[in-house]
Amino acid sequence: MTQKKICLASDNWTPAxxxxxxxxTEANEGYAPSYGSDAWTEEAGNLIQKAFKSKxxxxxxxxxxxxxxxxxxxxxxxxxxxxxxxxxxxxxxxxGAAEALxxxxxxxxxxxxxxxxxxxxxxxxxxxxxxxxxxxxxxxxSITQPTEVGTVYTLEELRTLAKLCKQENLLFHxxxxxxxxxxxxxxxxxxxxxxxxxxxxxxLGGTKNGLMGAESLxxxxxxxxxxxxxxxxxxxxxLSKMRxxxxxYIPFFKNxxxxxxxxxxxxxxxxxxxxxxSTPGLSLSYPVETNQVFFTAPASWIPLIQEKxxxxxxDAEKNEVxxxxxxxxxxxxxxxxxSILSEISKHPK
Length: 349
Known about the structure:
Blueprint: E1 6-7, H1 18-27, H2 39-52, E2 57-61, H3 64-75, E3 80-85, H4 89-92, H5 97-102, E4 105-109, H6 118-129, E5 137-144, H7 155-168, E6 171-176, H8 179-186, H9 190-197, E7 201-204, E8 215-219, H10 228-234, H11 243-254, H12 257-278, E9 283-284, E10 292-296, H13 301-308, E11 309-310, E12 312-315, E13 320-324, H14 331-346
Parallel strand pairs: 1-11, 3-4, 3-5, 5-6, 6-7
Antiparallel strand pairs: 2-8, 7-8, 9-10, 10-13, 12-13
Helix pairs in contact: 1-11, 2-11, 7-9, 8-12, 12-14, 13-14
């Protein structure tokens, strides 16, 4: 059912791209081996390996939370811990899945414009290690690229974090649910991002960038591959009819569709940011570097905005609202949003 209101609530609300639907339909012919033993899953894995220039091990999975939990379970034991920011997805928006299902404590540190900093990591490590066996043993650094507020770690920032991980014997996990948007923002390849970070394990998105319920886990560190086939099943991330998920990644990577879709989303976010900056009463909360736009508005405006635009009030104390553009955010959508915000600013109730 189509909605008349403009949707900037989330790229999760966005329909799958027509080429993705076509790929699923084409995969829906005849019989195929189950549980990932099919030709589509093999080809999808090969394409992902090619994109990252690595013989990484690839698992196609149905959910982003599942990919994160699968990754962290491979990386850590129950007495170990995971360092992340205070707004990390694994900490803030996954219903405690990491601690409930992985069994590890999350050690959170304050974010700076969404990012984790080496200084805060070192502080946390010193505090946690001060009491030896009476505390947890930090084992994993987990970041989100781009961050939960849409900002992007530069390649140099990633190299610095990678160096720190090596020095402190930490595994490096990246939650890349919107990694494609980060690559477009940095004008670089997916491979260059993971190479700079020397990533051990990556939760690679799909659903937010035009796929339909398809995510993946990419393991670069060979030592983390032991038992991964069994763990995929145990963590409820192994689908029997895997071909329908895997088929989506084929057009997505074969013709760099991921780049086209992420570029569209990022461009529209920049246009939205310009509108917000030019509207009296509105103020951007963070630099707009990908497809997420956070801004503050007078409290009385927020219900008026929500009457016309599907979006989330993000921080009630700040009167902060979040817009997320996607591959199908159109020029007409942007024009209408400009008109809506302009009208509210001139005639607030």
